[in-house]
Each structure stands twice: as C-alpha cells, then as structure tokens.
Write a structure and sequence with these properties.
With 178 residues, this protein is α+β, with helices and mostly antiparallel strands. The chain is built from 3 helices and 12 strands, in the order ββαβαβββββββββα. It starts with a strand and ends in an 8-residue tail after the last helix.
Length: 178
C-alpha cells in the first residue's frame, strides 16, 4: 500500500493492476489531453479500465488523479466535484466481475463545515459490498457516510444543525456567486 497526496487529496493508493492502468491513463491524459470520442459502454474489460478514467474526465468536474481503488483493484472509484467548490462530491463506483468493470452506482456527499478524510476511506464486503467515507468537524468529532453497493444511488448530507444544506447547494447551484 502506498499513501500519497494527489491533487490535494491523500488517497490511499494500493499496488494492483487497476491502479497501474489508472495511473498510466492519468499520465497519458496529462501529456496529451486525449479523451475518448464516445462512452465506453456498460461493461469495460479490466485491461481497459483507464478508458473509464478518460470517460470520467470528459464529463468534467474531475482531475486526472481523482480516483482510488480497493486493495485488490476489484472496486474502482472516480471522484468529481460538481457545483460550488467541493461542497458536493460524487463518487462513481465500478466493480470488477468476470474480467469486466461494471458501474454499480453513483454516490453523493453534500457537506458543510466537515473535512473529508480520504485516507480513511474503507471498503467492506457486507452484502453486495460498500464504501465508508469519514468526515471530521472542527471539534474533531468524526461522521461517517456508508454507501451500500446494492443501491445504485444514494446521498449523504453532513452539516451542522445551525447551517443546514440548502436545496440549491444540494443541486450544485452556485447562488450568490458571480
């Protein structure tokens, strides 16, 4: 396991085939800015997982190193931050099954006043599997969001009671920002 600061996020990077291919695709993107002409399709062979990164980057709101895997590379997660800064984070999750990556879900976190701890991201195998994200308040108190991969979409909202998430923020609209 290798931990590294990437684009400001301290993702834990594991040494596996998926991570190697994703790192190579990110480097190719940085050097040539090539993007795919069309979506990859619903199933992507494991050897072509880098195409998923390029597809993800073409959608916008993402950087070449905004990805992580679980330890064995059977789960690949792409991060995007649509809307106003990093208040909204979307995680597109793909699972390897029978040599092919298939999207299993899109999970969104809308947060205010909590710091995301990307290095504390955990994957589990309960049910169809899942992912837990950890956030900390300024007091150090942790909050956890768990996404169950049996559900294709879910939203976790984290905000102090005195400053709830507004509907506009949840939709990623930047009201009042010019």
């Amino acid at each position: 396991m290798l931990a590294s600061a990437v684009q400001g996020y301290e993702f834990v990077r594991y040494s596996n085939g998926a991570a190697d291919r994703l790192a190579a695709a990110a480097e190719l993107y940085r050097r040539s800015e090539l993007l795919p002409q069309q979506p990859c399709g619903e199933l992507v062979p494991a050897e072509q997982v880098g195409q998923l990164l390029l597809q993800h980057l073409s959608a916008g709101f993402a950087l070449p190193d905004d990805w992580l895997t679980n330890e064995d590379g059977s789960i690949v997660v792409f991060l995007s931050e649509p809307g106003c800064g990093s208040l909204v984070r979307e995680f597109a999750v793909y699972r390897l099954q029978q040599g092919m990556y298939r999207r299993c879900g899109t999970y969104r976190v809308v947060s205010r006043a909590y710091q995301w701890q990307p290095q504390a991201t955990r994957f589990d195998s309960r049910g169809q599997g899942g992912m837990s994200l950890v956030f900390t308040a300024s007091t150090g108190a942790p909050r956890e969001c768990r996404f169950d991969f049996s559900r294709p979409a879910a939203v976790c909202r984290i905000a102090p009671a005195h400053a709830p998430i507004t509907p506009a923020e949840e939709q990623g609209r930047c009201e009042g920002i010019k």
